[in-house]
Structures are given as structure tokens and as C-alpha cells.
Amino acid sequence: MWQQLYSDLKDKGFMVVAVAEESRGADHARPWIEQAKSDYWQLIDTEHRLEDLYNLVNVPQAIWIDEQGKIVRPPETAGSTDHFRSMDLKTRTMSPQAMAEREAARKAYMDAVRAWVTTGQHVLPEDAARAQLPKVTPEIASARAHFRLGVWLRAHGRAAEGDLHLADASRLHPDSWSMWRQAADLDEVGKASGPDFWKRVQALGERPYYPPPKL
Amino acid sequence: MTRILTPTGEHDVAARDGLWMSPADAATVTGWTLKPEGMCRDDLCVPLPESAVGTNEVDVAAFWQKLGGPVVSTDTRDVWALGAPADERNAALEGLAAPDFTLPDVDGTPRTLSSLRGKKVFLATWASW
């Protein structure tokens, strides 16, 4: 997904780190990684540790980090949009207009990354960066612990017990699509984009699934 | 043995009645050391109530909750997870220093974010689901 961007910018002191939030493990992610033919880092995060450290809620989200290791843009949606919500679920198709708008938004995001690397544009002042950080609440912290335990139990043949903790995690942190969808996928591959997913998306109403980045 | 999952590790320790364990095991699991002033890490000490300290043992569940971290377990209390306290996560992010991590690549080679210092890093998530 990021290979073109990386190829174009890697000589300018730029690196892409792509992290698979994938509790089924490396072998499950491997076909996608091989298909991407990427030469940036492709890492496997079975426990969603990155989501815990950076307070993430969905994929794809990205964080921009400067040469000194400082966050210059906090987590935000990385190029995806809510146009999929207009999809005809019977034919799994979108209108040409929705497709075009989605592509334009993706390109605008990629262009913003390019501008950052080449000219330093889009770096947020520290106060603005801080203000955009979502707060970790005690409920979110507790959800992460339940998720960690649930994934461990699932990986050790204790699915029924694990699912109770994964359900607790989603109850405590309902805004995390990653935890809900990962739990659905652990139950059955494909379930994360099945009827229950669409019901959950519809229940968002006016709220975004992918909040647009404020570029 | 009791299995304890922390944000970055997994430990098997001899614990009783929940997470009562030896001070040595408590230090291995939490990174905090039992001293007369309480549980200490670097220059910081968190006082413990008398009810959380015994003869050569300490109640790690009580300590972790005092830190503000979540403590969850299976019904049979054989596996536990100690989560990072919300305040600790918020303070780290508000400092704007990108929290460091080491994760394996698809072939198992460990990669550490901070080894990329000197480059701009675009850190992005994805998933197959």
C-alpha cells in the first residue's frame, strides 16, 4: 500500500513502518505482505501493542515521527474514507462518484506525506499535536488488559474464556474497531466484515468510521 | 505456577491467593522493587498499605491497582493481565516522544522504532480483517 510512497522518498531520509494488527500471527499476514512487494519494515503485532502504546482505534491509522523521534502528527486515519458506507451490499459496488472521491482523498493524503518529507509541511506545533491526542481513560486501559488476556487465551486453546475477555474489552472501549474486528476475526475469518460489522457501522449514524485527517 | 501478562512480557511465577509473591518475583514482573518505603523504581517509591505486604511477600495485584493499572484474570485465576495505567500512557504521549517498541517482522527478526532516529518515520497500521 505504501511502496510507491516509500520508493519515491526513501532517498530523502524517510522510512515506512507498517504494523499488522494481527492476532492470528505472521503466517496469516504473510500473503498480503508478499503481495505488497515492499522493502520497508512490515512488522507483526499479535497483541496490538502499538494500539495500546499510541491509543489507536482502527486501521489504517498513521503517526508521523520526525528525525528526533518526536510525534509531529498524532494518530489519524491514513488515507481511508467513509465512502465504503455507501456501498450496495448486494453487489458490493460503489457509485463512480464515490469511487472518484475516495481516490482523490487517498491521493491528497499521500501528497501530504510527500510534502512533509520534502518541505516539512503539515508538521503540527506541539500544543496542537497535544490537543489532537485522544485521551486514554481508565476504561480504555482496562479494555486493553482484557484484550491482552483474551488474545492469550485464544492462542492457548481456551477460546470460550478468551471470548469473554474480548467481549469485555469491546464493552469497555466501544470506539475501538480494532478490538471488535480482531475478536470477530479470531472467531471466524471474514466475520469482521460480515453482517454484524455492517450493523455496527450503521449504528454510527452521523459519526465517522474513519475521521478525516485535519490536514 | 501463575501466568502473568504485562504490556511487554509474560512471566510464570509461584503466587498464592491471587498475586501474593516473593519480592524477587514482584520485581521481575513489575520492574518495581520492594523497599521499606514501598515499591520503588528509580527515585520514585509508591507506599503500600500494610495489608499488601507480608513476611517476604507482597501483593502485586494491590500494588498494581495502587499505581492505577488494571488487573484482570481468568475465573480460575491461573492467568492474569496487568495493563498499563491510563495516566502513564497519557503522560508518555503528551511528552510527544514517540513511545518506543520492538516488534518482529514477518520472518521473526526484531525491529526497534528508535533505531530509525535520524529519519522521518511514517508509522502506519493495517490488518487483514
Give a quick set of tags describing it.
heterodimer; A: 215 residues; mainly alpha; two-stranded parallel ribbon; two-stranded antiparallel ribbon; 49% helix; 12% strand; globular; B: 129 residues; alpha+beta; four-stranded mixed β-sheet; three-stranded antiparallel β-sheet; 3 helices; 19% helix; 35% strand
Can I get a quick summary?
By secondary structure, chain A is mainly α.
Report on this model:
Chain A is mainly alpha-helical. Helices cover 49% and strands 12% of the residues of chain A. Chain A has nine helices and four strands; from the N terminus they run H-E-H-E-H-E-E-H-H-H-H-H-H. In chain A, strands 1-2 form a two-stranded parallel sheet. In chain A, helix 2 links the parallel strand 1 and strand 2. In chain A, helix 6 packs antiparallel against helix 7 and helix 7 runs antiparallel to helix 8. The longest helix of chain A is centred in the middle third of the chain and has 24 residues. Chain A starts with a helix and ends in a 13-residue tail after the last helix. The model of chain A has no long low-confidence stretch (mean pLDDT 97). Chain B has 129 residues and is an alpha+beta fold. Chain B has a domain of 88 residues. Chain B is built from three helices and 13 strands, in the order E-E-E-H-E-E-E-E-E-H-E-E-H-E-E-E. In chain B, a hairpin with a 5-residue loop joins strand 9 and strand 10. Chain B is globular and about 50 Å long. The model of chain B has no long low-confidence stretch (mean pLDDT 97). At the A-B interface, strand 1, helix 2, strand 2, helix 3 and strand 3 of A face strand 9, strand 10, helix 3 and strand 13 of B. Strand 1 of chain A pairs parallel with strand 13 of chain B.
